[in-house]
Write a structure and sequence with these properties.
The chain has about 375 residues and is an alpha/beta fold. The chain folds into 2 domains: about 250 residues, Vaccinia Virus protein VP39 (Rossmann fold, 3-Layer(aba) Sandwich); about 90 residues, no CATH class. Helices cover about 30% and strands about 20% of the residues. It contains 10 helices and 15 strands. The strands form 4 sheets. The chain has a 9-stranded mixed β-sheet with strand order 1-2-15-14-3-4-8-7-13, sandwiched between helices. The longest helix is centred in the middle third of the chain and has 20 residues. It is elongated and about 80 Å long. The two termini are about 30 Å apart. About 5% of the residues have low confidence. The structure holds S-adenosylmethionine (SAM). The site of S-adenosylmethionine (SAM) has 24 residues, from β15.
Length: about 375
């Protein structure tokens, strides 16, 4: 992920504006020494303005207590693009060293993350000698194979518009990965209901119930009547089950459904009864239902989100957009929890956390970026 600066920055060495003691979080803090004490004080405080820790991510993380953070989301520098004034990772001559350096930081992330916590890692790829290196997956495999993380999702962030690309012998690049890792495969915090899209409601038209997507049951009834693939007993059972399903839609117990009838619909499962319970149901009963979740559907793992416009806007500093962080925060950072970004830059993760009422901690090697984060977050007071 790249980052561009578009604002005049405050004078160097500007003093920290709030004393740590008694910090209630009206202003963001930049702390460049005794990070452990600053964190303890922040952890105990009530405020949700971010705590900003200046320094190298690996060194700062080492000073934070184990199992103290609920959620980590970050977008580290790309490998091989020299764009940050304060150095840091991404400048290694060999991509293998970059993978090693980044993985060492992820190892510390694992230590400070609670066992119920989540780690969301946004990574972009790089070409070298015309070859795409596959950096995101090299890092992901290092984390799963050598650090014991469980990878729950690989989200494709579709940026919808690509950067400048003059190549004439390959496609334009428009996506990055956002990996969701957890420390334990089961029992990690996940509020799926917080990210469901609200289901549309069924309607009653001329006395008949019609689901939000227009299912009235008329077509299924007709298919059942005409079916030669069902026995009379199966047909009767299917009619009764369909009537019950329509009643459930009408009462709001089911938000919507599809019916799959033997010999009629294209099945949505494997045909092998060994691997699919649905194939078995179709064989034994002649039909089955696909029910939509009454609280709405879960998002899928391709997200269309336009990067922040770094060219025109005055107040936004990085292409990594606030919207990219919203869903991870809502699903995997409990209210009252602490979010952390070890490559905080201009603080997008922290802004998203602040907007959603979560506490947050940002680490960056560049004080200049932290000052911009500070300004940006203080605007939210
Ligand atoms: C892609 S930018 C992050 C952008 C950020 N998401 C935002 O909202 O602005 C990567 C950041 O990592 C920082 N960085 C690079 N190496 C670092 C290190 N070893 N420790 C801490 N920060 C580092 C850079 O200074 C830069 O601000």
């Amino acid at each position: 992920m790249s980052l561009e600066l578009h604002q005049a920055t405050p004078s160097e060495g500007s003093p920290n504006r709030a004393a740590l003691a008694g910090h209630v979080g009206v202003e963001s803090l930049i702390v460049s020494a005794d990070h452990a004490a600053a964190f303890r004080s922040y952890q105990q405080g009530l405020g949700i303005q971010p705590l900003l820790l200046a320094g190298d991510a690996l060194e700062v993380l080492k000073r934070l207590p184990a199992e103290s953070i609920d959620f980590v989301m970050t977008s580290p520098p790309y490998w091989g693009k020299r764009e940050y004034e304060a150095g840091g990772i991404g400048l290694e001559a060999d991509y293998r060293d970059f993978v090693k350096d980044l993985s060492a930081i992820c190892f510390e992330v694992k230590r400070i993350l609670k066992s119920t916590g989540s780690f969301w890692l946004n990574l972009g790829d790089t070409y070298s000698n015309k070859g795409l290196i596959g950096i995101p997956w090299r890092v992901a495999f290092e984390l799963t194979d050598n650090q014991g993380w469980t990878l729950r999702n690989s989200v494709i962030w579709n940026k919808l518009k690509g950067g400048m690309d003059n190549s004439k012998d390959r496609l334009g690049n428009v996506h990055e990965n956002v990996f969701h890792f957890v420390k334990q495969a089961k029992g990690y915090y996940y509020d799926a209901d917080a990210i469901r899209s609200k289901p549309r409601e069924a309607k009653i038209v001329n006395g008949s119930v019609i689901s939000a997507t227009g299912v009235s049951g008329v077509r299924y009834k007709r298919q059942l009547e005409l079916s030669t693939a069902l026995s009379d007993a199966e047909r009767k059972a299917a009619f009764n089950a369909l009537a019950k399903m329509l009643a459930d839609v009408s009462s709001g117990n089911v938000s919507d459904f599809r019916m799959v009838i033997r010999g009629q619909q294209r099945a949505t499962h494997s045909d092998s009864e060994k691997v699919s319970g649905r194939a078995k149901e179709l064989r034994d009963k002649g039909f089955y239902f696909l029910k939509y979740h009454p609280k709405g559907s879960k998002p899928f793992d391709v997200w269309d989100i336009i990067p922040e416009d770094t060219q025109r806007r005055e107040t936004h500093f990085a292409p990594y957009p606030v919207d990219l962080c919203r869903l991870p925060l809502m699903a995997t950072c409990p209210v009252g929890g602490i979010a952390l970004d070890p490559f905080c830059g201009t603080g997008t993760t922290l802004v998203a956390a602040r907007n959603l009422g979560r506490k947050s901690v940002g680490i960056d090697i560049s004080c200049r970026y932290l000052e911009l984060t500070q300004e940006r977050c203080d605007l939210l007071i």
